[in-house]
Amino acid sequence: MRRKSEMLAELKQMLNEALRAQSAGASYTKLAKAQGAVDGYMRALLDSGVATKQELLEIVAAERARVNGPATREMLLETAAEIAAA
């Protein structure tokens, strides 16, 4: 069985490829396939207990920042709730 570090490295690579394809304006079919693979891999990591939801969220945020640059601002929970209510 593969180690956790190897599995998370694979996820990072898959995320990076999917985000780069999105940034490059790839076709819907290519994006859907890449995103589906990432979603399935993340579900397998969660279901097997290899990773927690928080760990996966942190990995996704880090890869997004690496590919798309840093977020323009951080949102507070109250701000997010206000936007959702609007």
Structural class: mainly alpha
Helix content: over 70%
Number of helical regions: 4
Low-confidence stretches: none
Characterize the largest beta sheet: strand count, sense, and whether it forms a barrel: none
Strand-residue fraction?
under 5%
> Cα-atom Rg, whole angstroms?
15 Å
Head-to-tail CA distance between termini? 48 Å
Overall, the morphology is: globular
Query: What is the typical, i.e. mean, pLDDT?
Result: 87
Order of helices and strands: HHHH
- What is the strand tally? 0
Question: Could you list some keywords that capture this structure?
Answer:
single chain, 86 residues
TL;DR of this structure?
The chain has about 90 residues and is an all-alpha fold.
What can you tell me about this protein's structure?
- Helix content is 77%, strand content 0%.
- The termini are far apart.
- It is mostly helical and 86 residues long.
- The protein is built from four helices and no strands.
- The model has no long low-confidence stretch (mean pLDDT 87).
- It is globular.
